[in-house]
Amino acid sequence: MSTTSDSFATMDSPLLPAQRRHRIVDFLRVHGAVTIGQLEQALGASISTLRRDLDALAAEGVVDRTHGGALLRQQAPEYATFEPDPVAAAELSPREKAAIGEAAAEALEPRQSVIFDSGTTVLEAARAAVRRQIPLTAVTNDLVIAQVLGKSPLVQVHMLGGMLRPGSTTILGQTLVDQASSLRADVLLLGAHAVTDDVISETSAELAGVKRALMKAANATRLLVDSSKFRPRAFMQIASLGDVAEVITDSGLPAAEEERLRALNLKLTVVKAR
User: Fold this and answer.
1) Which pLDDT value is given to residue 8?
2) pTM listed for this prediction
3) Each residue of 200-227: pLDDT tens digit?
4) Which residues form the HTH deoR-type domain (predicted)?
């Protein structure tokens, strides 16, 4: 199945119900989980229509309905280690990620040292930081993020070395962990695969280990996660929410989850997608 942006683009003509549901299942096979809002962006159908589609797929035993979305039932046992295709991941919640990235960049101060973790939401923060045209010392383990930051003459970019993750732009490995141990940055902009109760998690032990090393290298960690990331936990724990200074997410966050986060000893920033 293709994972290019054309795969989930809004159709020029309406789809028949069977066609639309087939595309929903294809979407879930790539992403594992999805919200109705994300399907609305991808397919161009109304929310009421998509709710009926998900209810029908749940009745057929294909998906498990969640608050505001669905999980692919066949994939649910393996979802803890499921890694979305990078191209497909970039298509998920684009407006939300852009708004979160903008908020994260606006909070940065000139001449700060900032670690940019890998991931599509942190990439949006890098793009927004370049648009702000402020001087920064940036550190990253992501090739694309380094290229984006390098477009600004005001940003001094340091790449962490190591092994390139297959099929990805992320650098991993013990070499990177060792280098991170000698750093002390002002801020880390952290991405994650899932947030479940108080646990921040990732799909692989190696990726989680790198993120833990980056957290140790920063005075403050700001977690950048769109609302779809509040879901069943992935394979390996990175940290607890008590280890981060701020969570930046979007207004699709369920009310109960927002209330729980506001009761914790951290700053919660909720942005609205444009």
Assistant:
1) 40
2) 0.76
3) 999 899 999 999 999 999 999 999 999 8
4) 17-72
Please write the tens of the pLDDT for every residue from 245-269. 999 999 988 888 999 999 999 999 9
pLDDT band at 161 (very low <50, low <70, confident <90, very high): very high
Is 88 inside a domain boundary? no
How far, CA to CA in Å, does 260 sit from each of 131, 156, 254? 34, 38, 10
114 in a structural domain = yes
Question: What domain range includes position 204?
Answer: 94-271
Please, where are the H alpha helices in the chain?
Answer: 17-31, 36-43, 47-59, 86-91, 94-106, 120-132, 143-149, 174-180, 205-216, 255-262
> Are 186 and 228 part of one and the same domain?
yes
67 and 127 in a single domain? The answer is no
- Domain end position, chosen among 36, 55, 81: 81
* Sequence-separated (6 or more) residues with CB below 8 Å from residue 107: 222, 246
pLDDT of 176 reads 97
- Total residue length of the chain: 274
Whether residue 123 is contained in a domain is answered as: yes
Q: What are phi and psi of 245, to 5 degrees?
A: -85, -30
